[in-house]
Amino acid sequence: MAAQQQPQTPAQPTASVPFTGSFSLRAKANAPPSQMAQLLSMLTFLEMSQEDDALVALNVESRDIQKSPYLFSITYFKPGKVETLYSCIPGMSPKKRRLEVLRNVLNMLTLLSDAYSVDTREIYQLLESSLADMAEYVTADYEKLFSEHDSLKAQVAELSKRARDLALANDSLSKENYDLKLKNDELVLKLKALETYSDSVLGLKIQDWIKEHGGEINILEFSRVHNVPEMRVEQILNRLVTEGYLEARK
After folding, report:
1. Average pLDDT for residues 62-87, to the nearest whole number?
2. In what order do the strands lie in the sheet with 54-63?
3. Where are the domains of the chain?
4. For residue 237, is pLDDT > 80?
5. Fold classification of 19-142 (topology level)
């Protein structure tokens, strides 16, 4: 026998007011409400009461600022059927919410298996409908996840390419810097070689200086002008005197 489903969802729920849904199963009570309440007492989150010949089980998941139930489900265990009403707040998936409430109701029916009889065909048909909703819900979620995954994968690939390009550019710049340093070192050595006089050239420089300065030489000044150590100037000067190119004044 087909399950009775009575969805109750306003067309345009407001941003703050929850909307409701419902479903029901044909069943048969084999025990009074008081005994059923005792069997469900282990579910401490339930608020239970008796209404006429039915057990009412209220599960309040959240309340509003007035302390009134906001997100909740309420199940009526009547002599001939089980009826569940539940709220679904804006922004929550109605299909996912229905599955959550159905899971809780089936859990209660498991605890009431000795006190309440439900036609398994009713449960199968309700489950079939809910599983179809779940498949649609999960598929949509996976499609979104796969889409985000593909997008992120593309971004990672692009960033990886940029990183490789930057690494290659950095390697190229490093090689250029190394080559420039080698060339600079080579030029520095050549410059130093040009700035360093041989002994014969330095001897001629000393002789020219003496001629230009009235037969005298200020070693300190000569060293500064020609960028030659004073000791070397003295050595070459002594050699020139020893070899007879210059005469020392007495």
Report:
1. 90
2. 46-51, 54-63, 69-77, 81-88, 19-29, 116-118
3. 19-142, 195-242
4. yes
5. TATA-Binding Protein (3.30.310)
